[in-house]
Amino acid sequence: MSDEQRSSQSEIDALPASRPGARAQEAIARLLSEPLEAGLYLVATPIGNLGDITLRALGVLARADIIYCEDTRHSAKLLQHYSITARTRPFHDHNEDREIERAIGDLESGKRIAIISDAGTPLLSDPGFKLVRAAAAAGVPVVPIPGASALLAALTASGLPTDAFFFAGFLPPKKASRRARLAELSPIPGSLVFYEAPHRVAETLGDMAGLLGERQAVVARELTKLHEEIARGSLAELAGTATEDMKGEVVIVVGPVQAQVITDEALGARLAAALEVMSLKDAARALADEFGVPKARVYGLGIKSKGEQG
Predict the structure, then answer these.
(1) What proportion of the chain, given as a percentage, has pLDDT over 90?
(2) I need a surface site. Which of 58, 151, 186, 265 has the fewest CB within 10 A?
(3) Range of the domain at 231
(4) Where are the alpha helices (DSSP H) in the chain?
(5) Are residues 176 and 193 in the same domain?
(6) Number of structural domains, the chain?
(7) Same domain as 224, residue 195
(8) Is position 4 within any domain?
(9) Residue 144's CB: how many other CB atoms inside 10 A?
(10) Band of the pLDDT at 45, cuts 50, 70, 90?
């Protein structure tokens, strides 16, 4: 924390609390009255409930010279709600490369630039990584303004282990590529967190049940919104109840593999599914890591299966 930040925090702590919300009002007033240093600010915005924005985020957005938005029309609702009138520019996958040079020029001239996504913490499955890297390389301050995150909201509410997790973002939309990616992720220790389009949730859960095995999982939909829903169960159970007409933003959390005794029959079934997307050598290694069994056992089942088919 800088000396300026410590000073601001001390002044906020000393504010009177004579009426409900007084300290919050005084805090935001003080933030708005202080100068904002030049730099690139990564500002987390609400994932649904507009109240889930921090005072510091409001202070930065209100004082920024430029706000880069994934979709300026979408972000306009948030900015108008809080009477923020800073200039906005689009920043998305299709214009990121050509917009970086312009942004770096503005930053080097002393501009205060904020980047926000449509919802949540920017750069998580959203554009911005290249801009941050370019800003850091140019010696421009990069300042995170933390806040809402669908990934962390779903993980913490899931009831699944949080001590180790892997965020895999969006899976490939095509079935073969998706199954191959799931096979790669299968041995990773810890919970797995995915974003998914609602119309693909049922198919994705089916692939997960086949490739990740008997794991507990959660499908979190419309977090912080009016129709928030958190469904819990095994991957097979969730796959059985999911529908293709699901609506809203979806996060899938899959718990880590549990130590278990697996029969040759069950191992053979998992191997058959894995062999659809990878070689026997790679499948044997992946399943041996996942179930804690000798690789030779898995490989032997594969050779036996090929012999029977031949």
Answers:
(1) 77
(2) 265
(3) 151-254
(4) 3-13, 22-33, 55-63, 72-81, 96-108, 129-137, 150-158, 175-185, 201-212, 235-241, 264-274, 280-291, 295-309
(5) yes
(6) 3
(7) yes
(8) no
(9) 14
(10) very high
Burial of 93 (0-12, 13-18, 19+ CB in 10 A): exposed
pLDDT of residue 9: 56
DSSP per-residue string spanning 119-155: SBSTTSSSS-HHHHHHHHHTT--EEEE----HHHHHH
Please check whether residues 216 and 273 belong to one and the same domain.
no
For the cut 60, the answer to whether the pLDDT of residue 11 exceeds it is: no
On whether residue 5 sits in a domain, the answer given is: no
Does residue 309 surpass a pLDDT of 80? no
Rounded to 5 degrees, what angle do the CA atoms 132, 136, 139 make?
A: 145
How far are the Cα atoms of 167, 181, 186, 204 from residue 174, in angstroms, in the given order? 20, 11, 18, 10
At residue 179, the pLDDT reads 96
Report yes or no on 117 lying in a domain. yes
Rg, C-alpha atoms of the chain: 24
Strand partners, 95: none
What CATH number corresponds to the domain at position 120?
3.40.1010.10
The pLDDT tens digits of the residues spanning 53-107 come to 999 999 999 999 999 999 999 999 999 999 999 999 999 989 999 999 999 999 9
CATH number at residue 221: 3.30.950.10
Q: Identify the DSSP state of 71.
A: S
Give the burial string for 43-68 (b: 16+ CB within 10 Å, else e). Answer: bbbbbbeeebbbebbbbbbbbbbbbb
Phi-psi map region of 74: left, alpha, beta (phi>0 left; psi -120 to 50 alpha) = alpha
Question: How far apart (Å, rounded) are the C-alpha atoms in residues 302 and 271?
Answer: 7
Q: Which residue has the tokens 């990773």?
A: 188
pLDDT score of 7: 53
